[in-house]
């Protein structure tokens, strides 16, 4: 074989695609990530429905209709925040970011690859979780405004949580990121108005809709239960995306 | 160590020849570092370092741990912005022209650089996919003896396998210039040979190689040019032959059982007179550079007798890079 120099970067789309494929494979290969991505949201869904029957809770819609939009929001949060923060923290620790930093892949391409991987995983989550919910009798309210709103919520929610996840991964050591990302996930699951409507939290409920979790959850519910365009939630998510991106850009180190 | 002259007559390091040298404005040097200054807080890492790397050469940057080797390399790779001075790699500024530079260089990091769960070949294929004309991954894998662990996750690879994978990642994009940081650290002798052979083959195909090492034998065996650095400064430069030849091409090492009195080196120096140099390696060992003839040996043994010094060993040898480093810095390179 010859080593005669013939340098050159692959075209950017090919690099981003390669990076997205690599990251997707690694995300799906990791058992913990799968647990976080699919198993926990499904358990919460099934347990929520069973609990609603058991405790005879009355929602204005059926339990599965009420809970599923929030479960989808939870799935987005688990992938774009917790999984991303943990994997990026360890990439920094293991010198992967440094290694890629000396490859032809530009930073924007790396970010593009990560976002691509997140969207692929989220797509799979939606298929699995949505499929199970449909089997459990989910009948979402379908309207063009609602569907467009749900899609935009998913995308902006991904952007907001990804920027916050990267902020966390950039600020803490890998192990601390692992702990913090899981802790924040659990806290938001329990008290962040992501799965259960903000109104079920009593007087603090209206404050919770300003959290990214509350905004994403209520946006998905507005879109998929109320069949309406969740303008306010989208604005809140956009605000968090700006804050997260600016802070991440200022603090993130690649080593 | 015997220095063979065979490798010096095969190359003219000033010749930019080879495909890698073409089209870069006729600049002969692949790397130019001028008066580089780098500090971490109060700690000065690189202190006015200037050096050049000829195209098509293997150039070793040699020095003890903490000498500033990695910082210098990382500045050339564009990871760090020079705090003072100027760095040009293949005629480009590694910071402001990083995007142009990166496809043309290969970087072998000292440690890590792969996901813990990624398979060895999968990682190499990924890096290859980021380049326009990568080498054949299966061939490179076979060449570096990585075929037996191709499906092994990175975290389960041995240190030597990780190093070889890292080297493969540095060369797979067919770069003009490769930076390798401590390329054989943690390798067994066989893997070390494989790595050296590969680096020589890269050079003969026109790739410029810059390597850091604190192993004298690595620099002596491999490099066309050696830059010895210590405390962030360049203290010597030349081919291994030029560096080791010196005036007195032989050395005598005297090791004694009891520590010397502090005045011993000066006293022996006085006995030996002009033309010889005496240096304390440590409290038990002296290095004498000069003609290792019968007269010198007689003087040394007489001096031992007169001073009640009991020699434990007295050895003669060719001056090595190790000795060069000791003579310049007064310290041993051994880390």
Describe the structure.
The complex is a heterodimer of chains A (255) and B (335). Chain A is mostly helical. Chain A starts with 11 loop residues before the first helix and ends with a helix. Chain A is elongated and about 75 Å long. Chain A has one domain (15-251). The mean pLDDT of chain A is 92. Chain A has helices at residues 12-29, 31-54, 63-93, 96-101, 107-135, 144-171, 174-191, 205-208, 212-224, 231-251. Chain B has 335 residues and is of the alpha/beta class. Chain B folds into two domains: 19-244, 3-Layer(aba) Sandwich (Rossmann fold); 247-318, Alpha-Beta Plaits, CATH 3.30.70. In chain B, 30% of the residues lie in helices and 26% in strands. Chain B is built from eleven helices and 13 strands. Chain B has helices at 69-76, 98-101, 120-129, 137-143, 159-171, 189-204, 216-222, 240-245, 264-272, 294-306, 321-329, and strands at residues 29-40, 43-54, 58-62, 84-89, 105-108, 177-181, 208-213, 225-230, 233-238, 250-256, 277-282, 285-289, 311-318. A six-stranded mixed β-sheet of chain B has the order 5-6-7-3-8-9, with helices on both faces. In chain B, strands 11-12-10-13 form a four-stranded antiparallel β-sheet, sandwiched between helices. Chain B has a three-stranded antiparallel β-sheet with strand order 2-1-4, covered by helices on one side. The longest helix of chain B has 16 residues, at 189-204. Chain B starts with 28 loop residues before the first strand and ends in a 6-residue tail after the last helix. Mean pLDDT of chain B is 85; it is low at 1-26. Chain A binds chain B through residues 1-11, 14-15, 18-19, 22, 25-26, 29-30, 90-91, 94-96, 98-99, 101-106, 255, and chain B through 18-20, 77-79, 99, 102-105, 107, 109, 111-118, 122, 126-127, 129-133, 135-136, 139-140, 143, 169, 171, 173-176, 201-202, 205-207.
